[in-house]
Amino acid sequence: MRAQQIQTLDGPAGMHLVDIDPPADDGRVLIDVAFAGVSFPDLLLSHGLYQMKPPLPFVPGVEVAGHIHAAPPGSGLEVGSAVMAFTTLGGFAELASADPAFVVPLHDSLPLQSAGGFLMNYHTAHFALARRGRVRPGETVAVHGAAGGVGTAVLQVARGLGARVVALCSSDTKADVARQAGADLVIDVNGDWVSELRSVNDGRGADVILDPVGGDRFDQSLRCLAPEGRLIVIGFTEGRIPSVQVNRLLFRNVDVVGAAWGAFLPVEPSLFGATQAALSGMIATGVVAPIVGATLPLEHAVEALRMLEERRALGKILLST
To answer: Model-level pTM?
Structure first.
């Protein structure tokens, strides 16, 4: 089968299209991949910077959508059924394997293409907001990087939880994408975004800020929290991992919260099913509708990773087989 394989840890340039043996079923579900989601962990894996460090060479790709090729007895999954799956690795290929517990039959209103980029971003968003951020209806949630795959997912899930959502964006094009995803207010980070964000919520600031950027953006976001606000950390796309003087948390009565969905799954395996049940309700009502910004053929996976690396991604990037 054709697959994209990371052979050296040189970033996207270290990934090459190869012909390799298909994965063994060994109790797992085999999926004929139609679409594979391209995620930030894939980019980090290509540089050897992710917490998981598989031996070289390996096939990246944390999530896929397609049709079941084979399923173990008793899994309740039927050959030919349309599904989406969290694969951890191996998604950038014509055939991928997944634990049956992480395979989800498609909802009627979720197209196969959209499903290819659903699980990683939307489960992360729900875990970060509902579980770690304790978002309540009526609160104001601000989102950095709001036009990307994770950002658009967070905007929609926050609305599904009853929050008012504020998108922080760096261009008019990205602002349009954020509005399409449901942003109630868009703030340009090229201006005095700190003052603007502090003025929302009747001048209290944001109740919750979700930050996938880190660096200076994290430092400034702390100033924009309402009393008892929560700053949720989900990544560091800027590169610098920030630190905080805890006296700032003490005197302002605010929290800094980490949210690593994939790392928490082994701690609480039931999280996957519970989160999907909550998201399925949002899919049914139309609140959640993934925005696909680009779909590239499997042969162009290197370019897909470069789009992430250069922050050119709008919505979710997918690979098609």
So the answer is: 0.94
